[in-house]
Design goal:
- This protein has 158 residues and is mainly beta.
- The chain has one domain.
- It has 2 helices and 9 strands; from the N terminus they run βββββαββββα.
- A 9-stranded antiparallel β-sheet has the order 4-3-2-1-9-8-7-6-5, with helices on one face.
- The termini are far apart.
Length: 158
Amino acid sequence: MPNNVYNIPVYGKPIALDDKGIYYAVNRKTGAINNVFQLVYESDLDQDGAWYLYQLKNTGKDGEMGWVILADHGDYPLKNLSPDEIKHYFDKPEYAEPKGAWQLMRNSRYGFGKFTPIHAEEDIRYAMILFSETEMLVPLLIIKVEDERFQSFAEPDR
């Protein structure tokens, strides 16, 4: 009997619970941190869980900082995009290199992306992405904070 079934592994690593945490963006010219984000997964026993993206911002109260959810018009949870939607956004010459696969979730205005490079020895990268009505703006490379001490202050205000 001929075997015409091929096992092709899933290429891009999905966004998973290990990806939740604090991320920061670095100014390329100065090397200073200029944005801090937090990817949060919340689940209720009654419902499926949902992903949310927050940004650390100045609250205007004596220099205090606080977590602000990134959303427009009450569209808070991030939703996974299909492979066709991801292809629509990343199938452009400016994203031809490096080679790899994107996983992406977004709400109406903000998104979180995970890039798995084709070469296993290269690091997975992350991006915070803004969307206009129909187009994706240039992704902002963000770096995950791996230090456990910083993860402890990461509870968003609700």
